[in-house]
Each structure stands twice: as C-alpha cells, then as structure tokens.
Amino acid sequence: METLNLPAFDYKIKQIEGKPYIFDSLRRKYVRITPEEWVRQHIVHLLISHYQYPKSLIRTEGGLTLNQLQKRTDVLVFDRHGKPFLLVECKAPDIPLTQAVFDQIARYNHVHHAPYLVITNGLTHYCCGIDHQTATVSFLDDFPAFT
Question: pTM score, two decimals?
Fold first, then answer.
C-alpha cells in the first residue's frame, strides 16, 4: 500500500481467498483493504494514538439517511455526551480533494451537525470548524483537541 502523510502504525494484514484484509480494531474484524480503507485505518489510528480520542466514541462506516438515500460516513467521532463531534471523509490517495468532496461531507453534516469536519486522501488533509448558528466555516491548522 502507498505511504501516506500520516504516522505509521502496527497493523495486521492477512489474505482471505487471495485478497488482502486489514484488521479494524474498532469493528474488531478483518475488512477488505482498499486505498480508501488504508486511509481510514491511518486516520482512526491517528485520532486514537496522537490525539487521544476515545476508541469507544469513534464509529466507522456508519449509516445515515440523506434525502431518502442510504449513505455511509467514513469516520464519526462522538463527544462525551454522545453528540457528533468530528466527521471525517476519507478518499483514496489518488483522489483529489475538490469542492465536490467538501460538498459531500457538508451534505452528510446536515444530518450529523458535527462542529468539526475533516477531509483527507491520506496525503493532504483539511480540517475546519463549523459554527452552525452563524453558518460560518473556519479552516484549522490541526485536528481539534478532544475535550
């Protein structure tokens, strides 16, 4: 897999029917490793190991209904009160982070109302804070601290 602009971590990969799978410590099972999954696993590890986000408050591949369509969020972190805190959209490293990606996570956030959004392709990362009352967005230099 491609080297990312994220800290390396100890991971477990195994072959199932000739295809590579990576162990997802949140879902506690092996999942098919795709370029996007490779990014997602790195982001989850970063949030837990470097930013001390509680593992129990992170959900991957969660479902949501948007305009009567079923969608999936890549990573959703909840605060200690069970409210959405940080929403992450992961793309494969070869996918550019365009306005369409920002639009996608913004649509998902109409459902979740998280105060922080991140988009990443593992090489480039954008994090922003959302003030839902004033409908303003501010880009951050780093991921928000979990409080």
Answer: 0.90
